[in-house]
Amino acid sequence: MSFAALSSRDVLRVPSTPVPMNLPNFLSYLLPPVPSYFGVAVLVVMQRTQSLRVVLWPLVAFLALRAASSFDFSLGNLEGAVQNLYLVTSMFLIATRTLEWTLATEHLQRYIRPVNSAPSVIMDALDLAVNLRGYGWNWSKRLHVPQESRPLTRTRFVGCAVLSAGLHALIFGTLHTAVRSFSPNTFGSMRRGTIFDETLPFFVRYLRSAIISTISICMVYCGIQMMYDLCIIPFVLILRQDPAQWPPAFDAPWMATSVNDFWARRWQQLFRRMFLFLGGDPFSHMFGSVGRIIGGFLASGVFHGIALVALNGQMEPWRMILAFAMMGMGAVGERTFLQWTGRRVEGLRGWVWTMTWVILWSSVMVDDWARTGLYGSSSVIDGVAPLRDLVERSMMAFDAWLRTF
Hints:
Blueprint: H1 3-11, H2 23-30, H3 33-44, H4 50-70, H5 78-103, H6 121-130, H7 154-182, H8 202-237, H9 259-266, H10 272-311, H11 318-341, H12 347-372, H13 385-402
Helix pairs in contact: 3-4, 3-5, 3-6, 4-5, 5-10, 7-8, 7-13, 8-12, 10-11, 11-12
């Protein structure tokens, strides 16, 4: 073994093969990125700390990379592979957000706090660490915040979150089972497969894939909403955050009348700032406002591509990147339409255009997820046999009917 290899493996303690999850490995590999992440959050809310952040960031990035590469939860098990996805994307967030904080020339400022609370560096840093959208902070500019319709008293707000989480979990499980039932022997199982059935005529094949993609989009919506609601409960009930700090995650994306409206306003904006930092801002310096749009979508494609590879190391992320790039091209096309005609894409025609474009390119994304075997994982409603059986029979009958055309 060379001296360089010896130093990188032994001194920096990077395991050559994935290590098992146990308490020593958790403390050695998985835990260190978390306090270092919070440490940078503390520094960036304090004045005149950029030099210290610059020195600290390479260590934070290394710890995050080491944690992401040290474990493999799959062991041939799809549910375990999903844990890999959570681990890799979490470490990616830590490395990326701390890099943005490191490059900030001014300290970040919070302007929305719980009622009757005094400014606190520690509490501000904690909010910054978990506040992905940047709501209530000076660094998230032009963020669209959906209008609140829930009661803002703490107990009733948490109660709404509990009910919403339960409802969306049930719908998520139902939709997951529905998608799985279209092809229980291919992409609906551990065998994996494609949503584009080559044995079907052209029109039926792509109608079927569009239906599967639409159900999948709704499933993703319910899954994100469920996780958002579950986060509300401890942060508002135990950490005593103000309900006003948790505005709605979505703004009725099914009502979008343009691609730009869908992605910039109505779909969840949790990762908006990260995508702009990684792609939108750099590309805007070279290509202006068009570059900002395309760069942001490319960054989103890279992020989702990394998640894809975390699920299945044999997957290639280029199709995911292409799909998001085409979403950006749709938004750019709407800007061009406005410049040429003086009219915005809106109304019923805008809705038809938006749903067509989003579903078209979402089919590429959904097909990638199907090829990883994601839909073959267990469903939330698997333990509710009557509901599961009803959904499976209904969707199999519907699929059989589609195949008659």
